[in-house]
Write a structure and sequence with these properties.
Elements: H1 3-16, H2 29-36, H3 40-52, E1 56-59, E2 63-66, H4 92-100, E3 108-109, H5 122-134, H6 138-143, H7 150-162, E4 172-175, H8 177-189, E5 195-200, H9 204-212, E6 216-223, E7 227-228, H10 230-239, E8 242-247, H11 261-274, E9 278-281, E10 306-311, E11 323-326, H12 331-340, H13 347-359, H14 362-387, E12 393-394, E13 402-406, H15 413-422, E14 425-426, E15 428-429, E16 442-446, H16 453-467
Parallel strand pairs: 3-14, 5-6, 5-8, 8-9, 9-10
Antiparallel strand pairs: 1-2, 4-11, 6-7, 10-11, 12-13, 13-16, 15-16
Helix pairs in contact: 1-3, 2-3, 5-13, 7-13, 8-12, 10-11, 14-16
Bound molecules: pyridoxal-5'-phosphate (PLP).
Keywords: Aminotransferase, DNA-binding, Pyridoxal phosphate, Transcription, Transcription regulation, Transferase
Protein name: DNA-binding transcriptional MocR family regulator
GO molecular function: DNA binding; DNA-binding transcription factor activity; pyridoxal phosphate binding; transaminase activity
């Protein structure tokens, strides 16, 4: 990362944390240059970057100011109390109709789970695919099939190590996306009928996997900013025979909430005390807006209880279907389950990603992606503050590409979903994120696509539709 980018990130963090408030002057070029020991041209470059990202504006002969972000700041959503102790899960039909609503390329994809392909280095990746294949000995195609591409495994282990989390490579299994990693992880530690602690609201595919494996959900409320309620979890673990936990400690889907390090330590202590494995879904690990990459609960795992699942789908190569699981003490059963089901993700796709990680400029791409997403988040929040009713509440996550909106109780997001669909807009209604069909007045919207006049018009239409409830 260049010096000016680092400095820009530091200022962006001060803005995000509210240390520099909207309308406030950012340090003058001279001041910043002296204070941070950098040249005035580095400060200028950083301020141009922050201007591009829409975080500051220049005022003639006066300097740079934090942009007045939205006409009004939308308040944080409430934390929803638990509805019932345990539940059978049945959300598939609803989730499939949301996925179906995204088939038409003309649809405004606010309901999508993937960012825009425009944000990914697909041309560079296809060169890596060709190169990876050219360099591959015929025997490698079969040799690497079960364990996974050797170079890719090395690159992933290296990234764990650079984060300060050395990982024995025997723990690592390459999978078809995080989805397979999560499926295998959960299946290897549960049997039909078991209780699994999940978040409320939760990523809908986790509910579908519970449904498929005939597991019962124990929903634990998630605070929209600070993450899972550890007191409720402690109580549930003490009273119920929970066989596994499935949580996202960072940029939780759909809320964007993240646990801080103390809470992650406490969560680990809890599962260790009860000897309950944690399936940690870290699909959004690379999409943080701040400068310091957060570490997962896995960092504390001294007993191999955490099954840590990652993916390249959201940050580099959607469609390549390459992810991984660091399975701790469950690595062996996970590996065997994989051999009994898919055997391996495509070997060429793995080789392409391995080559890209070594030579493609992955970290530069990630910085650009994070900046694009941060800008798009501001644009969507801005539009929501203009078009959505006064009582609307919204999350302001420090990464990822989802916003969670909470409307007054009278707003029925399932009806809204159907009405929006007729107007060419896809949205993700609250109940698909709940085993008990809660969150009926909530909506998840994705800002993963570059903002354009159609996005603006779609927000205005949604605002009109919401006003009719
Ligand atoms: C929270 C979460 N976990 C896992 C996945 C699945 O990731 P992959 O595409 O790598 O299978 C998704 C994709 O939507 C997700 O949002």
């Amino acid at each position: 990362m260049k010096r000016y980018e680092r400095f820009a990130d530091e200022i962006a963090e001060l803005i995000r944390d509210g240390v520099l408030a909207p309308g406030e002057r950012v340090p003058s070029v001279r001041q910043a240059s002296r204070q941070y020991g950098i040249s005035p041209s580095t400060v200028f470059q950083a301020y141009y970057l922050l201007e591009d990202r829409g975080l500051i504006v220049a005022k003639a002969r006066s300097g740079y100011y934090v942009r007045e972000q939205a006409r009004r700041v939308l308040h944080e959503p409430h934390m929803t109390p638990r509805r019932q102790e345990t539940a059978d899960v049945a959300v598939s039909e609803l989730a499939f109709s949301v996925l179906d609503s995204l088939q038409d390329p003309e649809t405004v994809p606010f309901g999508s789970a993937f960012p825009s392909p425009e944000l990914f280095p697909l041309a560079r990746l296809s060169r890596s695919m060709a190169k990876g294949l050219r360099g591959m000995a015929g025997s490698d195609v079969l040799k690497d099939m079960t364990a996974g591409d050797a170079d890719l495994r090395r690159q992933i282990v290296l990234r764990y190590t650079l984060k300060g989390m050395p990982l024995p490579s025997e723990e690592l299994v390459i999978t078809s996306g995080a989805m397979e990693a999560l499926n295998l992880g959960l299946q290897s530690v549960t049997s039909p009928g078991d209780l699994v602690a999940i978040e409320s609201p939760a990523f809908y595919a986790s509910l579908q996997i519970l449904e498929r494996l005939k597991l019962r959900a124990v929903e634990v409320p998630v605070h929209p900013r600070t993450g899972i309620d550890l007191d409720v979890l402690a109580d549930s673990l003490a009273r119920l025979p929970i066989k596994a936990c499935w949580f996202m400690s960072h940029l939780q889907n759909p809320l964007g909430a993240s646990l801080d390090d103390d809470s992650k330590r406490e969560l680990y202590a809890l599962i260790k005390r009860h000897r309950v494995p944690l399936i940690e879904d870290d699909a959004y690990a690379e999409l943080h807006f701040g400068t310091t990459p957060p570490k997962p609960v896995k960092q504390f795992d001294d007993e191999g209880l955490v099954i840590h699942c990652g993916s390249f789908s959201k940050c580099l190569a959607p469609g390549y279907r390459v992810g991984w699981v660091a399975g701790g003490r469950f690595a062996e059963p996970i590996s065997r389950l994989k051999l009994m089901t898919t055997i391996s993700p495509s070997v060429p796709a793995q080789a392409a990603i391995a080559d890209y990680l070594q030579h493609g400029g992955y970290d530069r791409h990630l910085r650009q992606l994070r900046h694009a997403l941060e800008t798009q988040q501001r644009q969507m929040l801005d539009a929501a503050s203009r078009y959505f009713p006064d009582e609307t509440r919204a999350t302001h996550p420090a990464g990822g590409y989802f916003l969670w909106f909470e409307f007054p109780e009278r707003v029925d997001s399932l009806r809204l979903f159907r009405q929006a669909r007729k107007r060419g807009i896809s949205v993700a209604p609250g109940p698909i994120f709940s085993a008990t069909r809660g969150f009926r007045h909530c909506l998840r919207l994705s800002y993963g696509h570059p903002w354009n006049p159609r996005s603006e018009a779609a927000m205005a239409t949604l605002g009109e539709l919401i006003d009719t409830f």
